Amino acid sequence: MQTTDRPFAELWQSEALDGARRALAALDEEILRDQMAITRIPSPSGEEGERASWMAERFRELGLVDVRIDEAGNVIGRRPGGAGASGYDDSGARPVVICAHLDTVFPRETKLDVHRSGPRLRGPGIGDNGRGLAVMLALARVIDGRSLHTRAPVDFVCTTGEEGAGNLRGAKALFAGAARDALAAIALDGAGDERIVHRALGSFRYRIELHGRGGHSWTSYGVPNPVHAAAIAAARIARLPIPTDPRTTLSVVRMGGGLSLNSIPESAWLEVDLRSVSPTMLEQHDRTLREVVRAATLDENSRRARGTPPLASEVLPIGDRPSGETPVDHPLVEMAMEATRLIGRAPELATASTDSNVPISRGIPAIAIGAGGRGGDAHTEGEWFDNTDAQAGVARALGIIVGAAGLA
Fold this sequence. Notes:
Blueprint: H1 8-12, H2 15-26, H3 28-39, H4 49-61, E1 65-69, E2 75-79, E3 96-101, E4 115-117, E5 120-122, H5 130-142, E6 154-159, H6 169-176, E7 184-188, E8 195-200, E9 202-211, E10 215-216, H7 226-238, E11 248-257, E12 263-264, E13 267-276, H8 279-302, E14 312-321, E15 324-325, H9 331-342, E16 348-352, H10 357-361, E17 366-369, E18 374-376, E19 384-386, H11 390-405
Parallel strand pairs: 3-6, 3-7, 7-17, 8-16
Antiparallel strand pairs: 1-2, 2-6, 4-5, 5-19, 8-15, 8-17, 9-13, 9-14, 10-12, 11-13, 18-19
Helix pairs in contact: 2-11, 3-5, 7-8, 9-11
């Protein structure tokens, strides 16, 4: 990893970084205006195009080079490293990648009103991730390749598919392609200035489907019932022993099936969410889940009337988020902790599922951090963000980025 050759505290006090922090403080109102503008652009997972185009245009205005939207819908722009943005070819250099996700959990028809009262903003997506994207623009402005330029290039990337069923689509494409050799990765996700997510919470998600012949609930009684099998599977999943160390969770989150009150269903389904910080636990419980579904199907088929066709079942993966960890003693995590202390906060090491899951799983040092301020009620239409003392979190993000990329 390209770090400065001097202690981080000394780097923090350097003239270049001090000037950049003052420039960021002067941009505080502009960050809020961008945050509100971004939040008003609909961007459900899978439909991020309008917001992506807006961000790409801003990247070009800021003078980032090689600005493009890739096949996954990610917006990518680079601030060259080395001697600065002019006349320097860093095409072979390994970049530090800054990510902020474009997508929200809200359907396109959601009314994206944003209201401001003093330092407090309210609106769906105002923190997650209107804040991360707005701060990314401010950071790209002050890391300008002139008054502040880094040894390693810095790639600013707005990613797609971070939320829900998006399955980290953008990050997976990015770190399998353009950023596969990244020096480090830092995800800006929501508000906050204390948490440092260095453990990636992995997950497997499934849709389990069961199909049979169905029929009338009286005259066809004895035909195997897919809803019965789904209920047997759900009950057995609920009773599985799940480890607390490494922490693992396994939940049936949705179920459905059936045609009418007097019909044996032709089909049923359930959806399951499996999470763990341990890849081994994910693989182990993946096998267990499949065994439970087979056993539940056999159980229901064993009671069917003679001559009736058996149920069929299928376990369909619908999500896969990798897990892993950037060690606490890695220089990236240590710098993030020191930067947090330098803004007067106590660092909180955390586990979560973010874009950083992907680089961590590929052996690239990565963390996720908040972009300053305080927020709450995320993923609801009452989501709020409070800008009080938010400049400290923005300064922290700047210090971590420059610490990772080094000063030229």
